[in-house]
Amino acid sequence: MRIALAGVYQESHSFSPALAALDQFKAGFLLYGDEIPQELTGLNHEISGALEAASNQEIVPLTYASAGSSGQPIHRETYDRLAGDILDRLREALPVDGVLMAMHGAMASEHHDDATGSLLQSVRDVAGPNVPIVATLDLHANLTRGIARAVDALVGYHTSPHIDQGDTGRRGMELLLQIAAKKVKPELSLRQIPMIVPGENGRTTEGPFSEVMDRVIRLEQEPGVLAASAYTVQPWLDLPEMGCSVVVVTDGDVRRAESEAEHLAREFWERRKDFMPHLTPVQEAIDLVLADERRPYVFSDSADAPSSGAPGDSTALLKVLLDRDISETALLNIVDPEAVSVVHRAGVGATLQLTVGAAFSSTFYKPVTFAAYVKSLSDGTFRIKGAGFRGVKVRMGRTAVVVSGGIQLVIMEQPVFQWGPELYRSQGLEPMDSKIVVAKSPVAFRAAYGPLAAEIIVPDLPGVCSPNFKLFPWEKLSRPIYPLDDLEGDLPEIGE
Ligand SMILES: [Zn+2]
């Protein structure tokens, strides 16, 4: 069979000042045609899993672009260029027997609230009604009716921390091939749930969401069920159709798809109060760490997590540590292109008064100035060694390490996923030798940092990805929604 393969993986954030233009995709992935298998084969990545599952088929790679969780809704020209390129290449590739789209699922653009749904519908319009389309999605996808209408089936990650990217691609491709061969007839049911949850307790390893996901995985293994998934959604999306959801795809049984989706949605809804994370006041967290012999303590600065769409430019924790003048080693990192230029001009070995932080917005924190020694400079490139996206190359842009007392600060040009210690190790810094290591990530960092951390602490810090949703100026979001509104009792219906 002849299968077209494409995708855009971007998670948008309505309140973040971080940019989402073509440069952010160039720093992630912007791959055309044969570059796609060349760059992604053999990694823990959706595309890689899909290619493996289709090794006996003719694959036509179109365009794959990833900017991770780059922040704002994608700029208009960037979306139009990426979508236009995928559609042009798809037109040239026709006829095809199926299309696999590797998406994130929580992508908005300046001109499309639901950019995932828009792109998938455009792919449907080009491919025609009879060509099967399957999309793979991140567990933080925002499932809209538009997405569900455009495709034959949806396959989602089953893990948070996300470690099943390759497996998700494989499941998506296997299902697409079955549909294309007319061995199954997918019936998809989407159940939207009027709730949003912080990522910290949306883990599949423990806590309320693990119980939901266990049921999802069991259901997917039952005869007659082609795919099942549950989505905790990217919560900082100020869009009318936004919230958690579940999707069930059965083989030819509409009623079963609907009843299983409804059942899963109720399981999810009933646990809504258990998702709020425990946040430790930041001074208390530092006292606790300094009073203990063990190391390293890994601090999750989830409020500034680039993997949730934050700019990575927070000084909140840096300022507290500078003010306390700690002598123990603390590894921190910050995005600040201007400060990187200043430090690169000063050179290794220089001492300077350096101002860093709040490079994109000073709503939640301000820049800080301190005396710093320039320890090293680099091009900021490394590969992920942990389970999630294993082997994927990460580009921080020009990077520097500066030192002030016990503080060792990595300053970078581009925000990156902070899922493992390679960010620091690539700069010659060793987390195991440090008292405090900061990971700007709510969940995914636990896969790699969990085994090496003495303890993990989530300090209460300000930022665009704070789990306190009531802080944000919601305008477009459909109400009522939990926890912004008090919703008691049974799972409410959501009308068209
Ligand atoms: Zn995610």
Word description of this protein:
Helix 3 crosses helix 7, helix 4 (76-93) runs parallel beside helix 5 and helix 8 runs antiparallel to helix 9 (254-270). This protein has two domains: 2-274, Response regulator (Rossmann fold, 3-Layer(aba) Sandwich), CATH 3.40.50; 282-466, no CATH class. 28% of the residues lie in helices and 24% in strands. The protein is an alpha/beta fold. Zinc ion binds at residues 138-140, 162.
* Percent in strands: 15-25%
Tell me about the biggest sheet? 8 strands, mixed
Number of domains: 2
**Which radius of gyration do the C-alpha atoms yield?**
22 Å
Q: The CATH topology of the largest domain, please?
A: Rossmann fold
Number of continuous helical runs: 14
* Class inferred from helices and paired strands: alpha/beta
Strand order of the largest sheet: 12-13-16-17-11-18-10-19
Low-confidence stretches: none
| CATH homology superfamily name of the largest domain | Response regulator
User: What is the percent of helical residues?
Assistant: 25-40%
For the record, the CATH architecture of the largest domain stands as: 3-Layer(aba) Sandwich
The mean pLDDT is 96
What is the molecular shape? globular
The first-to-last residue Cα distance is 37 Å
Name the hetero compounds present.
zinc ion
**What's the total number of strands?**
19
CATH C-level class of the largest domain: Alpha Beta
Short characterization:
The chain has 496 residues and is of the alpha/beta class. The protein has helices at residues 22-27, 35-40, 46-53, 76-93, 115-127, 145-150, 165-180, 208-220, 254-270, 282-290, 316-324, 337-346, 422-425, 445-449; strands spanning 2-12, 29-32, 58-71, 98-102, 133-137, 153-156, 186-193, 225-231, 244-251, 297-300, 330-335, 351-356, 368-378, 381-383, 393-395, 399-404, 407-412, 436-439, 455-457.
